Amino acid sequence: MTLLSRLQALASPAIGLGCMNLSHGYGQPVPEAEALKALDAAFDMGYRHFDTATLYGATANERLVGKALSGKRDEILLASKCGMAFDPELGRKVIDGRPETLRQQCEASLERLKTDHIDLYYLHRWDRSVPIEESVGALARLVAEGKIGAIGLSEVSAATLRRARSEHPIAAVQSEYSLWTRNPEIAVIEACREADTAFVAFSPLGRGFLAGAIQADTPLAEGDVRRGMPRFSAENLPRNLSQLAELQAVAREHEVTSGQLALAWLRAKGDDILPIPGTRSVAHMRENLAADGLRLAPVTVARLDTLLTPDRVAGERYGEALQAEIDTEAFP
């Protein structure tokens, strides 16, 4: 069985849950009792792929996931990430891919997650001061020790993936992919398929945009990452909303929500594409998971391909500082 087929078997249904939103990135964290209930509900409704990271909530998200899912450990695919963490002394996040750092972060994550192994462990960002082969080699030693089951990479290019897999097989690459972020189609999805590497799509709903959660007058809380993202700026958002209306029209024709249609489009791109939408809402978790059963006709997929294309979307997905941290291909 290949790494991809193992991952697909563990991550059934194909749509997983990005847990970040409960603790990080969208204003104030969800109160713990409420967040625990949401994760319990997610498991009960069928989610089996749960994704977290050392960075999220400055380790709080891993503690939350560990507390919620420790009794269900054998029934889930648990994914986390290293190499990017909040440094309390500096008061900011730090990207550090040195082997000793990755080992320390993994061992700390195991404690927070209340487990003796993490099924899929990503290098959250490539630290360009450390050769990718060196960071992956450190993760390979953790695989050999049984502390992690498989290695993943996040926000890397096809060239970096090929270098990394010369050191050790890479089970998954995680990057943003959705109707309005097509960058993985430039090269990295093809590179994944060369080696039976799964592609895990984060923000498959465009950080809520494709689900209709953002309007021109929607207030974004202090600390919401979208406040610094060009696509959500006062200048660009109206243009993007005018194109969202086209997606919503197609969704009405199919009697589904625009978010469900966006997820079904991703699923139609291949069984090796695993979306992990994140949400704070149990109702939205249920709505997203229902999209796993939707099957789109090829003519519908082709129609959706023409919407929200890179030349029509206003604004980059990241601001200048965040863009400098990633290694993914970009459209001209």
Describe the structure.
- This protein starts with a helix and ends in a 9-residue tail after the last helix.
- The chain has twelve helices and ten strands.
- It has a domain at about 5-205 and about 270-295: TIM Barrel (Alpha-Beta Barrel), CATH 3.20.20.100.
- It is an alpha/beta fold and about 325 residues long.
- The mean pLDDT is about 95.
- Helices cover about 35% and strands about 15% of the residues.
- The protein has helices at about 5-10, 30-45, 60-70, 100-110, 130-145, 160-165, 190-195, 235-255, 260-270, 280-290, 300-305, 320-325, and strands at about 15-20, 50, 75-80, 85, 90-95, 120-125, 150-155, 170-175, 200, 275.
- It is globular and about 50 Å long.
- It comes from Halomonas campaniensis.
- GO terms for molecular function: oxidoreductase activity.
- Keywords: Oxidoreductase.
- Pfam families: Aldo_ket_red.
- This is Aryl-alcohol dehydrogenase-like predicted oxidoreductase.
